[in-house]
Amino acid sequence: MGSWYRLYIDAPDPARRATAEKLLRFICADWGKLESIRDAKIDIAAAAGGFCRQGRRGMTMKYSIAPVIGGDGNAPLAYSNTHSAFSTTFLQGKSAEATLYHDDTRSFSIPAGRNGYFNDKMDSGETAGTQN
């Protein structure tokens, strides 16, 4: 965050893709330099109590997050009243496994156990209930 970012858009038609691109450019404007925008199949699915996001069929990145359970021993820690354009509430998680992002000349890794946040309302529908 702050140096560069790339957008990957999964849209069913050109009109929705254009709308998604416009929205994401606005939301992410302060994230750094926008290097590229690409069409990509993105799967988001509930998986083993957390979520799995996989872009470009796993060729670019697969990220699995497990919830960090709160004091009630049941629900994930929740952060609400945020200033995010995506959601006002995020749930705390941690990376469930080591992750590697690679696309062209850019790459980074996220070790297992690192903090992460997710929204439990996201699901692409195609892979609901499975982990890719």
N-to-C terminal Cα separation, in Å?
26 Å
Strand-pairing-aware structural class: mainly beta
* SS summary, helix count: 1
Mean pLDDT: 79
Radius of gyration, whole Å: 15 Å
The string of secondary-structure elements, in order, is EHEEEEEEEEE
Approximately how much helix is present in the residues?
10-25%
Portion in beta strands: 35-45%
Counting DSSP E segments of at least 2 residues, the number of strands comes to 10
Shape: globular
Oligomer: single chain
How would you characterize the overall build of this protein?
This protein is mainly beta. It folds into two domains: 1-39; 41-124, no CATH class. The protein is 11% helix and 41% strand. The chain is built from one helix and ten strands. The strands form three sheets. Strands 3, 4, 5, 6, 7 and 10 form a six-stranded antiparallel sheet that branches. Strands 1-2 form a two-stranded parallel sheet. Strands 8-9 form a two-stranded antiparallel sheet. Strand 1, helix 1 and strand 2 form a beta-alpha-beta unit.
Brief rundown of the structure:
The chain has 1 helix and 10 strands, in the order E-H-E-E-E-E-E-E-E-E-E.
Secondary structure layout:
Layout (H helix, E strand, L loop, with lengths): L3 E6 L4 H14 L5 E7 L2 E6 L2 E6 L5 E7 L10 E2 L10 E6 L3 E5 L2 E5 L4 E4 L14
Parallel strand pairs: 1-2
Antiparallel strand pairs: 3-4, 4-5, 5-7, 6-7, 7-10, 8-9
Identify the notable features of this structure and list them briefly.
mainly beta; 132 residues; 2 domains; 41% strand; six-stranded antiparallel beta sheet
